[in-house]
Fold this protein.
Amino acid sequence: MAVTTPRVCVIIAARNAARTIPVAIASALREPEVAEVVVVDDASTDDTQNVARAADDGSGRLKVMRLDVNHGPSFARNAAIKASVSPFISILDADDFFLEGRFRPLFASPDWDFAADNIMLIRDDAATDPTKVAAPSFAPEPQFLDFERFIEGNISRRRVLRGELGFLKPVISRAFLERHGLSYDENLRLGEDYELYARAVARGARFKIIKSCGYGAIVRADSLSGRHRTQDLKRLADADLALLALGNLPEGSKAALRRHERHVRDKYRLRNFLDVKAERGLASAAAYALASQSNLIPIVRGVAADKLDALLRRAGIAAKQQVPPMRFLMPATNAATE
């Protein structure tokens, strides 16, 4: 399915992104397959709206919307989907960018409802001019994600650089979303991509991934772990329970979902323990931990692991995890050596 006419709507939900959004918009407008770029300013307190409008290339493809109240990325993306018409939707974060030619490999064949490529993760202090960034020529190695593999691919491991499949930014068939009544869960401000993808795959979406890289993500110190609230973890765990209630999942998929729910719920319990300790003192935190075995076990494990890591670093036995200047979400093979 060679793309010769524009057909993609790029959606950018933005809050206080005046510094980065010109690059994001320019990278989208550069692509010939892009028919629309819809920016939703989610009640920014900086000049995001005007800076976004100034990034217009005069082609008539850019639309900038402004929300007066901050609702979060799910609400903003749903608003942009409703305000657009193109048959394919592509999400772009306001501090990220597309690599030139991003969409050609994704539209090389028509056998998908969601199609995602590799992501180049660039540490913010190592970022150079994004317009000059080029990805290695990776072999596509196309494959399809089933539900169980997708869920398992979103369980992070301690001391391992994060690479959850929920970070993927696929091109999405609007027809599939409309056919199944799918949209972003507006109760979520963490894991909203994961939840949408999981529900789509549960309803039979053909989720194709290729190892070719067309998306550049700037990794900031607070971009993956510091922006969400403790209650966001609880809502994400609750979303897993809602997925379990779908009723059409095989046992293997249900078991994977339960593992993911427990993984997220345990993170919530540890974070909540630390919040209670900071706000009301050690006695209240201990009471929370001892209220149930479900609370106690992940809290003890989490605190012990944190203390052990700190001890090993002080003793020089283990170093603080280093994030490389650049890496890729999915391991890939150079096309020249295949």
